[in-house]
């Protein structure tokens, strides 16, 4: 079918070329008519006029045939395209049928449950591994050396590192600082009210 389509399109182009050739020949015949009239040779002018009219009619006929062949080619093109689309759709429908037949919801659900269980197991194993690694690292590096290095780095940065303070004292220091800031803000607010 595609070979016939190619032949039809080729024929339409050939007919268009022939029409253009006839147009050129018609123009050439008209030029010859002018020359013959200028020379006063009316009989030759009449012959060239007949040739020009014939070329014009042939050009119109070629164009008409080209248009008809183009119309047929367009119909064939539509048929070829529809055939391809139909084949593709048939393949998709078959694939969908096969997929729908193999879709077993129970199997899919069981597979997802197993996946989630394995994922949870992996999380537990990863957490266990991290805990083991951190305890091993703590055992292999002496705590006093770690503390000394932290103090050294704090001294170089010009910071005060209070590692000796227990957690309870750190909390009370933070609370007392916060209450002192609150008192200062209250005093400033009172002064602003007095100014107003």
From TrEMBL:
Entry superkingdom: Eukaryota
Pfam families, sorted: Snf7
Any GO molecular function: protein domain specific binding
Cellular component terms per the entry's GO annotation: amphisome membrane; autophagosome membrane; endosome membrane; ESCRT III complex; kinetochore; kinetochore microtubule; lysosomal membrane; membrane coat
Transmembrane segments: none
Region span, Disordered: 164-196
Gene Ontology BP terms: autophagosome maturation; autophagy; cell division; establishment of protein localization; late endosome to lysosome transport; midbody abscission; mitotic metaphase chromosome alignment; multivesicular body sorting pathway
Ranges of Polar residues composition bias in the record: 167-179
Gene3D superfamilies (UniProt xref): 6.10.140.1230
InterPro entries, sorted: Snf7_fam
Family the UniProt entry places it in: Belongs to the SNF7 family.
Annotated PANTHER family: CHARGED MULTIVESICULAR BODY PROTEIN
Protein name: RCG46841
Source organism of the structure: Rattus norvegicus
Gene: Chmp1b
């Amino acid at each position: 079918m595609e070979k016939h389509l190619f032949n039809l399109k080729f024929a339409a182009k050939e007919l268009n070329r022939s029409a253009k050739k006839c147009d050129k020949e018609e123009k050439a015949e008209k030029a010859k008519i002018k020359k013959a009239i200028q020379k006063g040779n009316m009989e030759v002018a009449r012959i060239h006029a007949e040739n020009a009219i014939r070329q014009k009619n042939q050009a119109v006929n070629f164009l008409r045939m080209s248009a008809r062949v183009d119309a047929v080619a367009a119909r064939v093109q539509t048929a070829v395209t529809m055939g391809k689309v139909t084949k593709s759709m048939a393949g998709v429908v078959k694939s969908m049928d096969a997929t729908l037949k193999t879709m077993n919801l129970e199997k899919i659900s069981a597979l997802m449950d197993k996946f989630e269980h394995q994922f949870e197991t992996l999380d537990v194993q990863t957490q266990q591994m991290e805990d083991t690694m951190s305890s091993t690292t703590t055992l292999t590096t002496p705590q006093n050396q770690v503390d000394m290095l932290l103090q050294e780095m704090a001294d170089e940065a010009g910071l005060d590192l209070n590692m000796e303070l227990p957690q309870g004292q750190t909390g009370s220091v933070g609370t007392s600082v916060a209450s002192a800031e609150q008192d200062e803000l209250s005093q400033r607010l009172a002064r602003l009210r007095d100014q107003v």
